[in-house]
Amino acid sequence: MNIQVPIEVVERSELSARQRELLEQAIGALDHAHAPYSGFRVAAAARLANGQIVTGTNQENASYPVGICAERVALSAVNSIAPGARILEMVVTYRPSSGPGHTPLAPCGMCRQALVEQHVRQKDALGLMLAAESGPVWLVGNASDLLPLAFTPSDLD
Ligand code: THU
């Protein structure tokens, strides 16, 4: 078995106006991260099918394991604010304490699992756009592509 993950690498200038807007919103949301322990800010912005944009940021805790990643904050917000909504596209960006990065960040394993659940819930692709504050952008057609052989609801049957 040989599993491949299709990722399109594009320049920022190649993004559509909507994609650029989503990325700008995520970069703006980095200020809302609560990351005093790692100093590593992460923000996610999701565009819903109705055009609404919902953002999420990592929220750390003095009890370290209590902290939650930006992607799962955004997914929880979407499903709480707009239950049943379909996410067309989600962008994930970050800012380390050392200053803006240049290379895209891929979601952690737990967030990939949460993104698979969202894909199953909405029964339609959930595009992912991964980008630092400058540099190239990685486009993933469907977030589930990032977690091959995922555990899904059908495994519980
Ligand atoms: N983090 C995210 O928010 N998303 C990821 O996909 C990777 C990691 C956060 C968790 C923690 O607050 C900080 O980044 C450092 O790991």
3D architecture notes:
- This protein is α+β, with helices and mostly antiparallel strands.
- Helix content is about 25%, strand content about 20%.
- The protein has a single domain (about 10-155), classed as 3-Layer(aba) Sandwich (Cytidine Deaminase, domain 2), CATH 3.40.140.10.
- The protein has helices at about 15-30, 70-80, 110-120, and strands at about 10, 40-50, 55, 85-95, 125-130, 135-140.
- Strands 1-6-5-4-2-3 form a 6-stranded mixed beta sheet, with helices on both faces.
- Strand 2 and strand 3 (about 55) form a beta hairpin.
- The longest helix has 14 residues, at about 110-120.
- The structure holds tetrahydrodeoxyuridine (THU).
- Tetrahydrodeoxyuridine binds near residues 35, 38, 69 and 108.
- Tetrahydrodeoxyuridine (THU) binds near residues 40, 67 and 71.
List the helices and strands and how they pair.
Blueprint: E1 8-10, H1 17-29, E2 41-48, E3 53-57, H2 70-81, E4 87-95, H3 109-122, E5 127-131, E6 137-140
Parallel strand pairs: 4-5
Antiparallel strand pairs: 1-6, 2-3, 2-4, 5-6
Tetrahydrodeoxyuridine binds at residues 35, 38, 40, 42, 58, 60, 67, 69-71, 107-108, 111.
Question: What's the short version?
Answer:
With 157 residues, the protein is an alpha+beta fold.
Major sheet summary line: 6 strands, mixed
Order of helices and strands: EHEEHEHEE
Number of helices: 3
The top level CATH class name? Alpha Beta
Task: Give the full name of the CATH homologous superfamily.
Answer: Cytidine Deaminase, domain 2
Estimate the mean pLDDT confidence. Answer: 98
Specify the structural class: alpha+beta
Q: Give the bound compounds.
A: tetrahydrodeoxyuridine
Helix content: 10-25%
Runs in which pLDDT lies below 50 for 5 or more consecutive residues are none
**Strand percentage, roughly?**
15-25%
CATH fold type: Cytidine Deaminase, domain 2
Q: How far do the termini sit from each other? A: 25 Å
Level-2 CATH architecture = 3-Layer(aba) Sandwich
Shape: globular
Count of all domains: 1
Number of strands: 6
How would you write the strand order of the largest sheet? 1-6-5-4-2-3
Could you tell me the radius of gyration in angstroms? 15 Å
